[in-house]
Automatic annotation (TrEMBL):
Alphabetical list of InterPro entries matching this protein: PRO8NT, PRP8
GO molecular function: pre-mRNA intronic binding; U1 snRNA binding; U2 snRNA binding; U5 snRNA binding; U6 snRNA binding
Superkingdom of the organism of origin: Eukaryota
Any Gene Ontology biological process: spliceosomal tri-snRNP complex assembly
Span of domain PRO8NT: 1-39
Entry coiled-coil feature ranges: none
Gene Ontology annotations for the cellular component aspect, listed alphabetically: catalytic step 2 spliceosome; U5 snRNP
Protein name: PRO8NT domain-containing protein
Amino acid sequence: DEEAPLDYGDNILDVEPLEAIQMELDEDEDEAVIDWLYEGAKPLQHSKFVNGTSYKKWTLPLPIMANLHRLSSQLLSDLCDRNYFYLFDINSFITAKSLNMAIPGGPKFEPLHR
């Protein structure tokens, strides 16, 4: 690990972001979401599916939820085996990071809270 870390200001700050990815929706299969999925910042804000102005709780019917689940299947993990991560314990990792400890053979962390 003799390579210098990337500096945000020098390497990333001036880079223009790429264009957003938009999937091509089928008019028959994606009929439940095609009208509002790429609408803007807050789709369905003024519809009966959003509870009030808080935009925190949604009540979507089953066809819309099924369609969104099908569209998001590429992003969902297919790992259902609880033993898959048995060599990496996320709770121990977070505790070590919180306590500013060095993991043997691994990095030393800065404290999470200052």
